[in-house]
Design brief:
The protein is an alpha+beta fold. The chain is built from four helices and six strands. The protein has one domain: Beta-Lactamase. It is 34% helix and 26% strand. The structure holds methionine sulfoxide (SME).
Amino acid sequence: MYNFNIDPGTPKAELYAELLKAADALTDGEADGIANMANIASLLWQFLPDLNWAGFYRMVDEELVLGPFQGKAACIRIPTGKGVCGTAAQSGKTQRIDDVHDFPGHIACDADSRSELVVPVKSYGQVIAVIDLDSPKPARFDAEDAAGVEALAELLSNRL
Ligand code: SME
């Protein structure tokens, strides 16, 4: 049994340090990327407050395909360059969107989503997946969230 306890009042920097430690412990030495993504989606969901979706899209034949996640059923395929996820995949850069209604081409999988953070996971310079977090709160994600999830993406670069 894995039991990662996290106090909801934990400061963000500490929260992400704990999340990273838990992610490392869960994925270290495990070669199955699906299992690793499933456990990380679960950790994100458990550790980070105010989310309505947390999970992965994987780069398969030049398009993003839904991977393990927590939240409501979501769009299955996203062309590279489309929406927030496709923009992160194409640019290789983190997308932090305070209000998705202002993002041209945003793909609304869940009408409740208001802000979004998408971080690419790269291996040898290529985007192999993106980590997608959605929140019903506008401007839920700040620079500290982006840095925390980028550290996680770095850890996962050879574990998916
Ligand atoms: N909103 C995303 C699509 C994925 S869902 O949020 C799970 C986008 O615009 O890429």
